[in-house]
Design a protein that fits this description.
- InterPro entries: DhaK_dom, DhaL_dom, DhaL_dom_sf, Dihydroxyacetone_Kinase.
- One of its GO terms (biological process) is glycerol catabolic process.
- It comes from Amphimedon queenslandica.
- By secondary structure, the chain is an alpha/beta fold.
- It folds into 2 domains: 309 residues, 3-Layer(aba) Sandwich (Rossmann fold), CATH 3.40.50; 133 residues, DhaL domain (Serine Threonine Protein Phosphatase 5, Tetratricopeptide repeat), CATH 1.25.40.
- Helix content is 43%, strand content 14%.
- It contains 18 helices and 12 strands.
- The protein has a 6-stranded mixed beta sheet with strand order 1-2-4-3-5-6, sandwiched between helices.
- β10, α8 and β11 form a beta-alpha-beta unit.
- The longest helix has 19 residues.
- The relative contact order is 0.07.
Length: 540
């Protein structure tokens, strides 16, 4: 059972809806029901426009209440966590939003939802004479059924139906037009998901378990297990697998596997527990794969927590084959708080182009030189310096887990991985560094570390090496190397604001430098001096 910041499992949904409408003044609750309405619903009905209703179990926030607003849903009905809402609440919602132009209900393909929303629709028709239509969204491509939509679960692609249908209704289209296009959109989308962890309903244990090195493909959004379990793969591999499946004829969606240059839309959805860092990484990977590998034209892309599964760590990718006139509805403004509004481009448009991710003016002169040139042959002294750095890089890489574990006791647990990143960058450019020119070599090593090692440690090593490079000269004797080290330490103290005793790397670095100085004064052999520096303990 995972920890959750709630007061009571029984009150969690009601208190969550209360918080939602408290934050967003454009939303209201329908008294006595878990129904969220547009605050201007009465004015909307007076305009004679089609109104839209959707909903389902809670636990998928911001869906569905987060998509209530001008240009999207008129109202959303919430059930208990992962449970279909009761018929009486759906019927109450239909009464509250009934418009002379009619009501369209957008329902995800789950048995409970189909039954309860269907019953409410029939009662509204027979008892009240309301014109109510219902379309079913079932775009889950993980399940093998073809032809009929029975079996295919409704997932994050549902929000695209909300958006296009909502914009059409806002613009005054008829119920027939809105319903027909909504169904066409529902038939033009596909979704595939992957999970790294399960979720748990408040007050209950997770419905399945995943090992440390396992992931689950083809999840639903109710905590159920997927269709395949496999070993954890890299983000690029996962993205390729999901998109290859989505665009294959095996998915049962003939809209996919379209010709090169087809306009498609992409939705990268956080299932709940995925970090923003991972989500953006996956979005970039997916767009790159769609454009370069599959040769599609990604004209719209959306990213965020849109149709979640509580705290499940994972993502879903949704594709839609976009017809020309649908972009108008996708771009139509909405006040729904959950919709990921796209930022406008410099020309005021929302069109993506293939150069959006191009880095402008990147790379320092030295970085460019390191990437494009091979260093000259090195002498024996330079070779020894190179071999020493190679040995250090191997040791740091091998000690990654040990250093991370030590860092967890006092920091954020990334010391080993940070040093490994620097070691990897150095290894990749090792033969491009001018080892026979110690000053230039230190600057080159500094540049590689600055590019690859983030955080405070990367900055400190860069400062140490850059400052030390100014005084090392040709590095013709050990005393020049010690002078370089002391200059680097001086700069670290000045800019870092720390000193010996502050529990930083200076607690080891300063005693080591002083041990070197003493050894040189005593005319000790170089290796003995280095040994003394390594073994010295901080007693000052």
């Amino acid at each position: 059972m995972s920890k959750k910041l709630i007061n009571s499992p029984d009150r969690a949904v009601d208190e969550s809806l209360h918080g939602l409408v408290s934050v967003h003044p454009g939303l209201r609750l329908l008294s006595g029901h878990r129904v969220v309405l547009r605050a201007d619903i009465e004015d909307l009905i007076k305009t004679g426009k089609v109104t839209l209703l959707s909903g389902g179990g809670s636990g998928h926030e911001p869906a569905h209440a987060g998509f209530v607003g001008k240009g999207m849903l008129s109202c959303a009905v919430a059930g208990a966590v992962f449970a279909s809402p009761p018929t009486d609440s759906i019927l109450a919602a239909l009464k509250a939003i009934f418009s002379p132009a009619g009501v369209l209900m957008i329902v995800k393909n789950y048995t409970g939802d189909r039954l309860n929303f269907g019953i409410a629709a029939e009662r509204a028709k027979s008892e009240l004479g309301l014109d109510v239509r219902m379309i079913i969204v079932g775009e889950d491509t993980a399940l093998p059924s073809t032809g009929k939509s029975a079996g295919r679960r409704g997932l994050c692609g549902t929000i695209l139906v909300h958006k296009i249908a909502g914009a059409m209704a806002e613009k005054g289209c008829s119920l027939d037009e809105v319903a027909a296009t909504a169904q066409e959109v529902a038939d033009s989308i596909g979704t595939m998901s992957v999970s790294l962890s399960p979720c748990s309903v408040p007050g209950h244990k997770p419905s399945f378990q995943l090992g440390e090195n396992e992931m689950e493909l083809g999840l639903g959004i109710h905590g159920e297990a997927g269709v395949e379990r496999t070993n954890l793969q890299s983000a690029n591999e996962v993205v390729a697998r999901l998109l290859d499946h989505l665009t294959s004829t095996e998915s049962g969606y003939q809209y996919f596997n379209p010709p090169n240059g087809t306009n498609v839309g992409l939705v990268v959805n956080n299932l709940g527990g995925t970090s923003n860092l991972e989500l953006s990484l996956i979005a970039g990977s997916a767009i790159d794969y769609l454009t370069s590998k599959l040769c599609y034209n990604v004209t719209r892309a959306y990213m965020g927590s849109l149709m979640t599964s509580l705290e499940m760590a994972g993502v879903s990718l949704t594709l839609i084959r976009i017809k020309d006139h649908w972009t108008e509805y996708l771009d139509y403004p909405t006040t729904a708080p959950g919709w990921p509004n796209q930022p406008l481009g410099p020309d005021g448009s929302q069109e993506r182009n293939s150069n959006n991710a191009t880095i402008i003016g990147s790379g320092s002169k030295r970085e460019t030189e390191l990437k494009s040139t091979i260093g000259p042959p090195v002498t024996t002294v330079g070779q020894k310096m190179r071999d020493c750095v190679v040995s250090i890089c191997k040791s740091l890489t091998a000690a990654e887990e040990e250093l991370d574990d030590l860092d967890r006791g006092s920091g954020d647990g990334d010391c080993g991985s940070t040093l490994k990143a620097g070691a990897k960058a150095l290894t990749e450019c090792i033969d491009k560094i001018p080892w026979d020119e110690p000053s230039e070599a230190l600057l080159s090593v500094s540049d590689a570390i600055e590019r690859s090692m983030g955080g405070t440690s990367g900055a400190i090593y860069t400062l140490l090496l850059t400052s030390g490079s100014r005084v090392i000269g040709k590095g013709e004797c050990l005393s020049k190397w010690v002078e370089s080290l002391m200059e680097g330490i001086r700069a670290v103290k000045q800019y870092g604001g720390a000193d010996v005793g502050d529990r930083t790397m200076l607690d080891s670095l300063v005693p080591a430098a002083k041990a070197l100085q003493r050894s040189i004064t005593d005319s000790s052999p170089s290796l003995d001096a280095l040994k003394a520096a390594v073994e010295v303990q901080c007693t000052e």
